[in-house]
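Changelog-adjacent note: as of this version, every example in the card shows the full chain rather than a window. The one below runs 511 residues end to end.
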Amino acid sequence: MSSVPADPQMVEVTTALALEEKGKLVKSLSRLDMTLFTICAFVGLDTLGLVAANGPQGFLWLALLAVLFVIPYGLVMSEVGSAFPEEGGPYEWVKLAFGRFQGSIAAVLYWFTNPLWVGGSLAFIATAAWSGNITNIDPGGIWDYVFKLAFIWISIGVAIAALKRGKWIPNLGAIVRVLVLGLFSVTVIIYGFQEGFSGSLVTDITPTMSVFLALVPLLLFNYVGFELQNGAAEEMEDPQKDVPMSVLRSGVSGVLMYAIPILCILLVLPLDKVTGIGGFLDAVSATFTIYGGAADVILKCVAIGFILTLVTSGSVWMIGSDRVLAVAAYDGAFAPFFGRFNARLGTPVRVNVLSGIVASIFMVAAVALFDNGEDSKFYIVLTIAISTTLLSYLWIFPAALKLRYSHGHVKRPYRVGDRGNGPMIVAVVMTTFWVALGSWVAIFPGTLESIFGVEYDFNDVWGTGRGTYELLTIGTLVVIVIVAIIGYAMGAAVRREQVTVAIDPGSESTG
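Full-length structure tokens:
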């Protein structure tokens, strides 16, 4: 099915299935919802300890990337997100810029991370937080599986719920982040005045290449999420006005919510009290002693709040990334079975359930086959799974620049730079450089260290040889590409039922 010929610059080619499914979407996201949603996506408490464990250099690189990556990233997403507010944002942008097949690759990469992240690090960190502060859970026991499965499917349940109701859970998660991090920061300062500021902030702050290369993927993973809200763009009340403002507000809030707690930790605690993944709650335990007999109760409340932030981190990324894959499916770029939105809920329930199944299988495998997540191979698979998010931006950022040229006639309520394409080119080059660097370091660790003469013991860092590591990482990426190709082939029938819809060029405006 096709419409009458039209100026190719003034139309978008879509499918009959896409038009049918778009009719199920309900506008329910206000500017405040979008800001809280993006804070929830942007701020993850699961990595605070890992950054702080790198001492003053961790804080230094966190601050520098806030300037060198977050600012240009926010500018780019403000323009493309407000100019092209179609459901499934990142997929639609790549499709418009480079075609459906490239959009399919980007969508699968963008989605793939999240089930493994929820079933992997988030579920395991949440279990450790509960076991260490509320009630002990034996690793590998029945309650270990029960707790982790409950964590996964609560996250999925929030994504399945109608957005007008489900959005309140991520909103609450953003508020809990503010409360937990605010209480923690105040407590650490009080602790410092009572016990002394014995931290390491003023020592060893000289930047080194080894710490920089080790932290780049983690810091970039911390700092992505501005475009996630555009997964539900056609469920926003006024995306053209609200996207730039939500990016600005969540970006400033998010950077501060990372920087202030880490700064407080480094001011007060010596590095031997900050222990990686569990570092945040370790710091809480060490400093909340100032509350005397009430410390245990307060610590339990903070641990529950911490677990809630992990649940909402997973659910908010499921809400956005599952929609990206579902939109690719109803547009004929992925298996059409997954392109259906539930008529009553207005959510991509089939993709949501797929995410839950993948997360559950990965969790069970990690517990049963990878020594409850302690085996080095588990961390390798998890690292490459997380890096797929960074890889997807190698399509998303260049697409934003390409649309400046191929769709320059489309109204831009916000524009990077008042005149010309120079500022946009600079912003896209900067952001693409960072995600390319982070992706390379994650997939081929140790290679840049050898170039810069940095000592790097691969077996000591990863607990296995490079051959095994590359087999797992490259193998994972090959599987993702194969899934994308098969999914694209399955969408052929949907692509044949294509229609064209008009793009309103509007008028250019600047910001």
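Structural remarks: Residues 1-6, 505-511 have pLDDT under 50 and may be disordered.
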